[in-house]
C-alpha cells in the first residue's frame, strides 16, 4: 500500500481520499463503534453497553459496514452458545490515534447540554 504525505503546500480544497474516509467514518455511530473497539469492547453486548442510545439493529448494521470496509474483523467461536468477537483490523487500529485526537478535541471544544 502506498502511504501519501500531506504538507501545507499540497492541501487542496477537495481530496477524494479524505472524502472517502469521511464517508466511512461519517455514517451514524461508525466512529463511536470504532472508539468502543479501541477501548477494548469485543463482544456485541460489550459494544452495545459502551454506546448508549444505539439500537441493536443499527449496531449490527454498523458492524457489518465496518467489516465490509476492512476496519473490523468478526470471529465466530464454535462453542455452546456460539461466541462472536469483534476486533479492529490493522487498518482499523491505525485510526486509533485519529479517533483519540478527535476525542481530545471534543473534550476541549464541545460543551454537552446539561441534560446529558
From TrEMBL:
<dbReference type="InterPro" id="IPR036388">
    <property type="entry name" value="WH-like_DNA-bd_sf"/>
</dbReference>
<keyword id="KW-0805">Transcription regulation</keyword>
<keyword id="KW-0238">DNA-binding</keyword>
<keyword id="KW-0804">Transcription</keyword>
<dbReference type="Pfam" id="PF01638">
    <property type="entry name" value="HxlR"/>
</dbReference>
<feature type="domain" description="HTH hxlR-type">
    <location>
        <begin position="15"/>
        <end position="114"/>
    </location>
</feature>
<dbReference type="InterPro" id="IPR036390">
    <property type="entry name" value="WH_DNA-bd_sf"/>
</dbReference>
<dbReference type="InterPro" id="IPR002577">
    <property type="entry name" value="HTH_HxlR"/>
</dbReference>
<protein>
    <recommendedName>
        <fullName>HTH hxlR-type domain-containing protein</fullName>
    </recommendedName>
</protein>
